[in-house]
Amino acid sequence: MKDLTQLVHRPQVDQTGFSSLSVPTHRASTIVFPSADAYTRRQAREPDGYAYGLGGTPTTRVLEAQIAALEQGERTILLPSGQAAIALLFLTVLKPGDTVLIPDTAYPPVRALCADVLAAQGIMHRIYPPLTGAGIEAFIDDSVRLIWTESPGSATMEVEDLPAIVTVARRRGILTGCDNTWATPLLFKPLAAGMDFSVEALTKYAAGHSDVLLGSVTLCERTWYVRLRAMAKVLGIGVSPDDCALVLRGIETLGVRINHIGKVSTAIAEALRTHPAVAQVLHPALPECPGHAFWKRDMTGASGVFSVALRPELDTRLDDSLAAMQVFVIGASWGGTRSLVAPMTVRGRLGGYPAGRLLRISIGLEDKDDLLCDLLDLLDRLVAS
Ligand SMILES: *Cc1c(COP(=O)(O)O)cnc(C)c1O
What's the predicted TM-score (pTM) here? Predict the structure, then answer.
């Protein structure tokens, strides 16, 4: 072959004896076929096989299989972010005329998806109080197709009575889905609890290093898997194998990270309880957290995100005080190695939430005493100023 051809036709090399522990990063848009016939019949390879790069490569499949096993599901589909995973699920499951029930404490972009996009397609949503449990029955009519849950809830950390919701949903023939990002499949397995869909923002704990976005939907019912893959395909949504490789690396240490972070976050939450700047510490492992009994019954531990409700008279001082923190940085998208704080104003229409602003805390991998000192200094500054 001439030089120009050799530049793009690589030589075959002997791979005998090469066996490693890493997952190769297979990148592809084009998939090549052994015959014209195989090419013509390529769609028969879907949804699991390889027909076009958009649908995934072996790297993608390894991560999907790993998440499916952890979630005790049949299949997992990866999406470019946690929000994309929720959006694809809603767009696949819901049709005009359907209603989805979402908790008042849902990740805010989920509410925006319902109000700004789905509503225009004739898909309705209703908002239920996160602690409703069996009371979900009161929100159900014939149009309800899906009950969405997120436990604990964003910012105010209410733990939902998911088994009670599942019982009602099953009796009424309604699908259930859970945003399980906080617990990860290590602390709670939604599908084992009888739910139909488990969504993870892998961006957070699975990836674990604040440098990649990825989401997953895991399920038991193969027909939903086929429909989700088909919807992703027509919307042109796929994931980067390089991003999957980062999550494949991050997830190897998920167990030690969650175990450590859960202990540190619980110890810090306990230590902040009595500070004069604090109205309430909202951490699922503390008895005063709404839904704590459900956390204790249903989850096998805590992760690292919790909130501190501040005394309302300190609200205006919070923003200035945060800038002086030494170890924590201000930011969203928790779950990495660095500890984060984010000032929040409680939203939610249904009421019954803390009156003051919230400080959402995500514990990372720094030394526990450094973290506690930084937080106590912040709270002292708030009270003193
Ligand atoms: C971050 C987050 C999401 C969205 O994940 P992205 O990958 O950032 O889109 C969804 N749900 C919860 C609970 C989250 O914390």
Answer: 0.97
325: number of Cβ within 10 Å: 16
Can you tell me the distance from the alpha carbon of 18 to that of 35, in angstroms, rounded to the nearest whole number?
29
Please report, in angstroms and rounded to a whole number, the separation of the first and last CA atoms in the chain.
Answer: 77
CB burial readout 99-131, b (16+ within 10 A) else e: bbbbbbbbbeebbebbeeebeeeebbbebbbbb
CA-proximal residue: ligand 1, atom 4 (nearest):
82
* Residue ID of nearest Cα to ligand 1 atom 15: 181
Convert the pLDDT of each residue in 104-146 to its tens digit. Answer: 999 999 999 999 999 999 999 999 999 999 999 999 999 999 9
Domain 254-384 has CATH 3.90.1150.10: yes
Max Cα-Cα span within the chain: 79
The number of C-alpha atoms within 13 Å of 192 and in the hemisphere containing its C-beta is 13
- What top-level class would CATH report for the domain 36-251? alpha beta
Q: Domain boundaries in the chain?
A: 36-251, 254-384
CA-proximal residue: ligand 1, atom 6 (nearest)? 82
